[in-house]
Write a structure and sequence with these properties.
This protein is α+β, with helices and mostly antiparallel strands. It has one domain. A six-stranded antiparallel beta sheet has the order 2-1-3-4-5-6, with helices on both faces. A hairpin with a 3-residue loop joins strand 3 and strand 4. Helix 4 runs antiparallel to helix 5. The longest helix is centred in the last third of the chain and has 12 residues. The protein is globular and about 45 Å long. It starts with 7 loop residues before the first strand and ends in a 5-residue tail after the last helix.
Length: 161
């Protein structure tokens, strides 16, 4: 497995503060595993909990959502667990068998973890099926549906063509 922090494109926490979305950077080592991300998210305010968005090596992303004592996880590509500790921690958290070389690049976890915020499972599945999109592009689309796309795009320096 590679050195975790070398491949992190960005790690952000999103949460509601009053009526507005807020974004805050998540620092290492909080993004090294699902458990450390969940722990870090619990310190953010808001009844709707907080969502961590971590993109790695322009290859995959992990979403972790914490609401109260519940932690929900979505990994965009299960095969990333072969190379990345964060992806492996998502697979372990979800109780999935280890990926092997024959596995397809498919998502794993809770496709509906943002359903109550406006990104339903069917839409998430369609988005994750688009193999031409990079993780930052997928997350930009997700954040637009949730209502803070511009804030996200500014935070990650993402500009669409």
């Amino acid at each position: 497995m590679s050195e975790q922090s070398d491949g992190i494109d960005f790690a952000l926490a999103a949460f509601h503060d009053g009526d507005e979305w807020q974004l805050q950077e998540i620092a290492s080592p909080a993004y090294d595993s699902v458990h450390s991300l969940a722990h870090a998210l619990r310190r953010f305010p808001g009844d709707g909990g907080a969502v961590a968005m971590v993109a790695v090596d322009e290859d995959f992303f992990v979403l972790v959502r914490v609401v109260g004592s519940t932690t929900r996880v979505l990994l965009s590509d299960v095969t990333a667990a072969e190379e990345w500790e964060l992806a492996q921690s998502a697979v372990d958290f979800l109780g999935l068998p280890p990926a092997d070389d024959e596995d397809e690049q498919v998502p794993a976890g809770d496709l509906d973890l943002l359903g109550d915020l406006g990104m339903h499972a069917i839409d998430m599945g369609v988005l994750l099926d688009d193999v031409d999109l990079f993780p930052d592009e997928m997350l930009s689309d997700i954040t637009r549906r949730l209502g803070f796309g511009e804030l996200f795009d500014d935070a990650v320096g993402f500009t669409s063509a």
